[in-house]
Amino acid sequence: MKRRETLFLLILLIAVASFYQKARTYPLLWDDRLQLEQNPILTAQAPLSKALFMGYWEPLGMVKPGEDYYRPLLTLSWMGEARLWGLHPARLREVNILLFCGILPLLYLFFRREGMGQSLAGALTALFAFFPLQGDNIVWIVGRADLLLLLFGFLALTTLQRSLKGNRPLWAALSSLAFLGGIFSKEAFLFWLPLLFLYDLFKRDRHPLWPLHWANLFWTALFFLFRKGMTGGVGPSLFFPAHPLEGALKALGYYSGWLLFPYGRGMFEPLDRLSLPLTLFFALLLLALSLLWFLKTLGPGRLSWEKLREALPLLFLLLPLGGYLLLSFTPIYPFGLSTRYLALPFFGCLWVGGTVLKELKPLPMRVLTTLLLLSYLPVLFLRILDYRSDVRFWTVHYGKAPGNSFLAYQAGRAHYEAGRYREADSLLDTALRGNFQRETATAIGLLKGEILFKKADYSGVQEWIGALGGLSLTPRARESRNLLLLRLLLAQGQGERAEECWRSLKGGVEGWKRVARFWSHRGEWERAKRAASAGGVSGPWEEERRRLETLDPWRLSQEAFGLGDFCGAADLLGETSTPLQEALRGECLIRCGRRQEGIVLLESLAKREGGRYKPLVEGVLKEKLLL
Question: Phi, psi (5° rounding) for residue 338?
Answer without folding.
Answer: -155, 135
